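Running low. Got one?
___
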Amino acid sequence: QVTVVESGGGLVQPGGSLRLSCAASGSISNIWSASWYRQAPGKQRELVAGITSAGATNYLDSVKGRFTISKANAKNTVYLQMNSLRPEDTAVYSCYVIVDITSILYEYWGQGTQVTVSS
């Protein structure tokens, strides 16, 4: 049984910061790769940031220079540091992970965490 839980969302003023966490627990060896997605009301889900097994990262153009994705292998946790937040960053943020379980890869989604940027 693998559980993926996001945390760290909340209400923040424009220009503020939040750090989202995505923790995978259960019988996993490590998080192979991970991505953060977001979906705002009435909009399609979009890929915000991703990190590969080798540590390579990619970002949505609108968040480049403001958001940073990272992975703590020892904790099986993925982070999304979000700085200089804007009202248009308001959305439900979800993490998607591919985990290694005895050398077989499995994919999981978290339940999502709300981020609201407003004054």
Summary: The CA atoms of residues 37 and 58 lie 12 Å apart. The first strand starts at residue 3 and ends at 7. The two ends are 41 Å apart (CA to CA). The chain is about 0% helix and 60% strand.
